[in-house]
TrEMBL record:
Transmembrane segments: 25-43, 55-74, 157-179, 191-212
Keywords, ordered alphabetically: Membrane, Transmembrane, Transmembrane helix
Superkingdom assignment: Bacteria
Name listed for the protein in its UniProt record: Putative membrane protein
InterPro entries linked to this entry: DUF969
Pfam families assigned to the protein according to its UniProt record, in alphabetical order: DUF969
Species name: Nitrospirillum amazonense
Protein backbone atom coordinates (compact mmCIF):
# COMPACT_ATOMS: atom_id res chain seq x y z
CA UNK A 1 0.00 0.00 0.00
CA UNK A 2 2.92 2.36 0.56
CA UNK A 3 3.51 2.35 -3.19
CA UNK A 4 0.33 4.41 -3.55
CA UNK A 5 2.02 7.35 -1.85
CA UNK A 6 2.66 8.77 -5.33
CA UNK A 7 -1.07 9.43 -5.73
CA UNK A 8 -1.10 11.45 -2.51
CA UNK A 9 1.93 13.45 -3.67
CA UNK A 10 0.24 14.25 -6.98
CA UNK A 11 -2.98 15.30 -5.27
CA UNK A 12 -1.16 17.47 -2.74
CA UNK A 13 1.12 19.01 -5.36
CA UNK A 14 -1.74 19.97 -7.65
CA UNK A 15 -3.78 21.25 -4.70
CA UNK A 16 -1.09 23.81 -3.84
CA UNK A 17 -0.44 24.47 -7.55
CA UNK A 18 3.18 23.43 -7.70
CA UNK A 19 5.00 22.93 -10.99
CA UNK A 20 3.39 19.82 -12.60
CA UNK A 21 6.76 18.48 -13.76
CA UNK A 22 8.22 18.71 -10.25
CA UNK A 23 5.10 17.07 -8.81
CA UNK A 24 5.32 14.17 -11.27
CA UNK A 25 9.02 13.63 -10.54
CA UNK A 26 8.43 13.78 -6.78
CA UNK A 27 5.55 11.31 -7.09
CA UNK A 28 7.73 8.94 -9.10
CA UNK A 29 10.54 9.10 -6.55
CA UNK A 30 8.08 8.67 -3.69
CA UNK A 31 6.53 5.60 -5.30
CA UNK A 32 9.92 4.12 -6.12
CA UNK A 33 11.34 4.61 -2.65
CA UNK A 34 8.18 3.22 -1.05
CA UNK A 35 8.51 0.14 -3.27
CA UNK A 36 12.08 -0.44 -2.08
CA UNK A 37 13.91 0.88 -5.13
CA UNK A 38 17.17 2.79 -4.79
CA UNK A 39 17.77 6.29 -6.12
CA UNK A 40 20.03 5.01 -8.90
CA UNK A 41 17.43 2.41 -9.87
CA UNK A 42 14.71 5.07 -10.06
CA UNK A 43 16.84 7.37 -12.22
CA UNK A 44 17.69 4.41 -14.45
CA UNK A 45 13.97 3.69 -14.86
CA UNK A 46 13.44 7.33 -15.88
CA UNK A 47 16.14 7.04 -18.53
CA UNK A 48 14.90 3.69 -19.81
CA UNK A 49 11.31 4.88 -20.18
CA UNK A 50 12.36 8.17 -21.78
CA UNK A 51 14.44 6.30 -24.33
CA UNK A 52 11.59 3.89 -25.06
CA UNK A 53 9.12 6.75 -25.63
CA UNK A 54 11.43 9.35 -27.13
CA UNK A 55 9.31 9.57 -30.29
CA UNK A 56 6.68 11.42 -28.23
CA UNK A 57 9.12 14.35 -27.91
CA UNK A 58 9.29 14.77 -31.70
CA UNK A 59 6.26 17.05 -31.53
CA UNK A 60 8.43 19.69 -29.83
CA UNK A 61 10.62 19.81 -32.93
CA UNK A 62 7.64 20.87 -35.03
CA UNK A 63 6.60 23.78 -32.84
CA UNK A 64 9.60 26.04 -33.68
CA UNK A 65 9.22 25.12 -37.34
CA UNK A 66 5.54 26.07 -37.37
CA UNK A 67 6.33 29.31 -35.55
CA UNK A 68 9.03 30.16 -38.11
CA UNK A 69 6.67 29.43 -41.01
CA UNK A 70 4.04 31.70 -39.51
CA UNK A 71 6.61 34.45 -38.99
CA UNK A 72 7.63 34.14 -42.65
CA UNK A 73 4.01 34.51 -43.77
CA UNK A 74 2.57 31.06 -44.35
CA UNK A 75 -0.90 32.29 -43.33
CA UNK A 76 -0.69 35.21 -45.76
CA UNK A 77 0.40 32.93 -48.60
CA UNK A 78 -2.41 30.49 -47.83
CA UNK A 79 -4.93 33.34 -47.94
CA UNK A 80 -3.53 34.58 -51.26
CA UNK A 81 -3.67 31.10 -52.76
CA UNK A 82 -7.29 30.48 -51.82
CA UNK A 83 -8.23 34.01 -52.89
CA UNK A 84 -7.31 33.18 -56.48
CA UNK A 85 -9.90 30.40 -56.65
CA UNK A 86 -13.10 32.19 -57.63
CA UNK A 87 -15.36 29.16 -57.12
CA UNK A 88 -14.03 28.45 -53.65
CA UNK A 89 -16.21 28.76 -50.57
CA UNK A 90 -15.52 27.91 -46.95
CA UNK A 91 -17.61 24.76 -47.11
CA UNK A 92 -16.08 23.53 -50.37
CA UNK A 93 -12.55 24.24 -49.16
CA UNK A 94 -13.09 22.35 -45.93
CA UNK A 95 -14.87 19.51 -47.74
CA UNK A 96 -11.90 19.00 -50.07
CA UNK A 97 -9.60 18.94 -47.06
CA UNK A 98 -11.98 16.56 -45.28
CA UNK A 99 -11.90 14.01 -48.10
CA UNK A 100 -8.13 14.32 -48.53
CA UNK A 101 -7.65 13.86 -44.78
CA UNK A 102 -9.76 10.71 -44.84
CA UNK A 103 -7.79 9.26 -47.73
CA UNK A 104 -4.46 9.92 -46.01
CA UNK A 105 -5.67 8.44 -42.72
CA UNK A 106 -7.02 5.37 -44.52
CA UNK A 107 -3.57 4.85 -46.04
CA UNK A 108 -1.93 5.06 -42.62
CA UNK A 109 -0.57 8.61 -43.01
CA UNK A 110 -2.68 10.00 -40.18
CA UNK A 111 0.18 12.08 -38.75
CA UNK A 112 0.69 14.15 -41.91
CA UNK A 113 -1.93 16.61 -40.70
CA UNK A 114 -3.09 17.92 -37.35
CA UNK A 115 -4.27 21.02 -35.54
CA UNK A 116 -0.82 22.44 -34.82
CA UNK A 117 0.78 21.75 -38.19
CA UNK A 118 -2.16 22.18 -40.57
CA UNK A 119 -5.40 23.57 -39.12
CA UNK A 120 -4.11 26.65 -37.30
CA UNK A 121 -1.39 27.85 -39.71
CA UNK A 122 -3.01 26.87 -43.04
CA UNK A 123 -6.60 25.61 -43.12
CA UNK A 124 -8.25 28.12 -40.77
CA UNK A 125 -6.62 31.19 -42.44
CA UNK A 126 -7.68 29.86 -45.83
CA UNK A 127 -11.26 29.51 -44.58
CA UNK A 128 -11.24 33.04 -43.16
CA UNK A 129 -9.84 34.47 -46.39
CA UNK A 130 -12.36 32.79 -48.66
CA UNK A 131 -15.22 33.73 -46.32
CA UNK A 132 -14.23 37.40 -46.42
CA UNK A 133 -13.85 37.20 -50.21
CA UNK A 134 -17.34 35.72 -50.60
CA UNK A 135 -18.99 38.13 -48.15
CA UNK A 136 -17.09 41.16 -49.39
CA UNK A 137 -16.38 42.34 -45.86
CA UNK A 138 -14.29 41.41 -42.80
CA UNK A 139 -15.66 38.66 -40.63
CA UNK A 140 -17.34 39.54 -37.35
CA UNK A 141 -15.69 37.91 -34.30
CA UNK A 142 -18.45 35.25 -33.93
CA UNK A 143 -18.18 34.46 -37.65
CA UNK A 144 -14.42 34.12 -37.40
CA UNK A 145 -14.79 31.78 -34.44
CA UNK A 146 -17.36 29.74 -36.38
CA UNK A 147 -15.06 29.37 -39.39
CA UNK A 148 -12.14 28.34 -37.18
CA UNK A 149 -14.31 25.85 -35.28
CA UNK A 150 -15.38 24.15 -38.51
CA UNK A 151 -11.74 23.91 -39.58
CA UNK A 152 -10.93 22.06 -36.37
CA UNK A 153 -14.04 19.89 -36.73
CA UNK A 154 -13.08 18.88 -40.26
CA UNK A 155 -9.73 17.62 -38.95
CA UNK A 156 -11.24 15.78 -35.97
CA UNK A 157 -14.15 14.09 -37.73
CA UNK A 158 -12.21 13.09 -40.85
CA UNK A 159 -9.49 11.42 -38.79
CA UNK A 160 -11.84 9.78 -36.29
CA UNK A 161 -14.04 8.08 -38.89
CA UNK A 162 -11.33 6.96 -41.30
CA UNK A 163 -8.25 5.91 -39.34
CA UNK A 164 -9.73 2.46 -38.64
CA UNK A 165 -9.66 1.70 -42.37
CA UNK A 166 -5.90 1.28 -42.01
CA UNK A 167 -5.51 -2.23 -40.67
CA UNK A 168 -2.21 -1.70 -38.81
CA UNK A 169 -3.44 0.73 -36.18
CA UNK A 170 -3.95 0.32 -32.46
CA UNK A 171 -7.68 1.03 -32.47
CA UNK A 172 -8.33 -1.87 -34.84
CA UNK A 173 -6.45 -4.23 -32.52
CA UNK A 174 -8.40 -2.83 -29.57
CA UNK A 175 -11.72 -3.48 -31.31
CA UNK A 176 -10.64 -7.00 -32.23
CA UNK A 177 -9.58 -7.72 -28.65
CA UNK A 178 -12.84 -6.39 -27.20
CA UNK A 179 -14.95 -8.46 -29.59
CA UNK A 180 -12.85 -11.56 -28.92
CA UNK A 181 -13.33 -11.10 -25.16
CA UNK A 182 -17.07 -11.20 -25.77
CA UNK A 183 -16.97 -14.31 -27.93
CA UNK A 184 -16.99 -12.61 -31.34
CA UNK A 185 -14.07 -13.62 -33.52
CA UNK A 186 -13.16 -11.21 -36.32
CA UNK A 187 -9.94 -10.47 -38.14
CA UNK A 188 -8.36 -7.00 -38.21
CA UNK A 189 -9.09 -6.90 -41.94
CA UNK A 190 -12.81 -7.39 -41.25
CA UNK A 191 -12.77 -4.41 -38.90
CA UNK A 192 -10.97 -2.28 -41.51
CA UNK A 193 -13.36 -3.22 -44.29
CA UNK A 194 -16.44 -2.42 -42.23
CA UNK A 195 -14.97 0.95 -41.27
CA UNK A 196 -15.33 2.07 -44.90
CA UNK A 197 -19.15 2.53 -44.83
CA UNK A 198 -18.80 4.61 -41.66
CA UNK A 199 -16.24 6.84 -43.34
CA UNK A 200 -18.54 7.31 -46.34
CA UNK A 201 -21.44 8.28 -44.09
CA UNK A 202 -19.15 10.76 -42.33
CA UNK A 203 -18.37 12.40 -45.68
CA UNK A 204 -22.07 12.71 -46.52
CA UNK A 205 -23.20 13.99 -43.12
CA UNK A 206 -20.35 16.36 -42.39
CA UNK A 207 -20.15 17.42 -46.03
CA UNK A 208 -23.76 18.59 -45.74
CA UNK A 209 -22.87 20.49 -42.57
CA UNK A 210 -19.98 22.21 -44.33
CA UNK A 211 -22.14 23.24 -47.28
CA UNK A 212 -24.76 24.57 -44.88
CA UNK A 213 -22.00 26.66 -43.32
CA UNK A 214 -21.80 28.67 -46.54
CA UNK A 215 -25.53 29.43 -46.36
CA UNK A 216 -25.27 30.32 -42.71
CA UNK A 217 -22.51 32.83 -43.36
CA UNK A 218 -24.32 34.38 -46.33
CA UNK A 219 -27.49 34.74 -44.27
CA UNK A 220 -25.52 36.51 -41.57
CA UNK A 221 -26.55 33.99 -38.90
CA UNK A 222 -22.95 33.39 -37.91
CA UNK A 223 -22.62 37.04 -36.86
CA UNK A 224 -25.12 36.69 -34.03
CA UNK A 225 -23.71 37.27 -30.58
CA UNK A 226 -22.75 34.02 -28.80
Amino acid sequence: MLSLVGIAIVAAGFAVRLNPLLVAVAAAFGTGLAAGMGVVEIVSAFGRLFNANRYICLVYLFLPLIGLLERLGIQVQAQRLIGRLKAATVGRTYLVFFILRQVLAALGAKDLSGHAQMVRPVLAPMGEAVAEENLGRPLAPPERALVRAHAAAAENIALFFSEDIFVAIGSVILIKGYLAANGIEVSPLDVSVWAIPTAIVAVVVHGARLLLLDRRLKAGKGAAAP
